[in-house]
Amino acid sequence: MSGLWEFPGGKIDDGEAPGEALVRELDEELGIEIVVHRPLTFAVHEEPGLRILLLFYGARIVRGEPHGHEGQAVEWVETAELPSFPAPPADAELIRRLAEGSIS
């Protein structure tokens, strides 16, 4: 989604658990090793002919400093600032909840 800020992650490979996919994707995209915590929430994104279930997890970095391996910008921001970043519609509920402090 060009021009939008997104949370890192991606598709789950066959035979892969969601947490395993997140560990793999963050290594590939950001060059970091993480420990996955509990699920935070989920969202469903729908377009004509496409339905995607997004699972949002808490995680902790245990190795590395995030940098965009695929040319993407990376920025740490306070959760209250998240609503000011243009983001995909599927991320709206998570962003709202993070900004208001109802999940952390």
Quick recap:
By secondary structure, this protein is of the alpha+beta class. It has a domain at 18-77: Nucleoside Triphosphate Pyrophosphohydrolase. It has helices spanning 18-30, 92-100, and strands at residues 33-47, 50-63.
Question: Can you walk through the features of this model?
Answer:
The chain has a domain at 18-77: Alpha-Beta Complex (Nucleoside Triphosphate Pyrophosphohydrolase), CATH 3.90.79. By secondary structure, the protein is of the alpha+beta class. It is globular, with a radius of gyration of 14 Å. It has 2 helices and 2 strands, in the order H-E-E-H. 21% of the residues lie in helices and 28% in strands. It has helices spanning 18-30, 92-100, and strands at residues 33-47, 50-63. The mean pLDDT is 92. The protein has a two-stranded antiparallel sheet. The longest helix is centred in the N-terminal third of the chain and has 13 residues, at 18-30.
